[in-house]
Amino acid sequence: MAGLGNIYADEVLYKAKIHPERKAKTLTEKEIGKLCHEMVQTLEDSISAGGSSVNTYMDSMGLSGSYQERLQVYGRNGEACIDCGTILEKTKAAGRGTHFCPTCQKNS
Ligand SMILES: [Zn+2]
Hints:
mainly alpha, Helicase, Ruva Protein, domain 3, two-stranded antiparallel sheet, binds zinc ion
């Protein structure tokens, strides 16, 4: 996820239901497939929301109100998960703050 930005990484991992502290080598083929799918999907969403490149995308995720409303996990620690109602948590993974749902995103 290096270089992709915290917001993007948090959102993609949440959608793929993968815990932020999972080691890459423990991911199953199915999970990797899901992760790739969600990465593409998230980029396509941002483009349809008005972005035209990864840079525009990052700007729009950081600044644009319309995209911010669509964020499902980033910055929502302490609020209920959209999927299951569990309170979202913020942890430190790989030296950065990460937002995730402890129920939807299994660490195993
Ligand atoms: Zn959840």
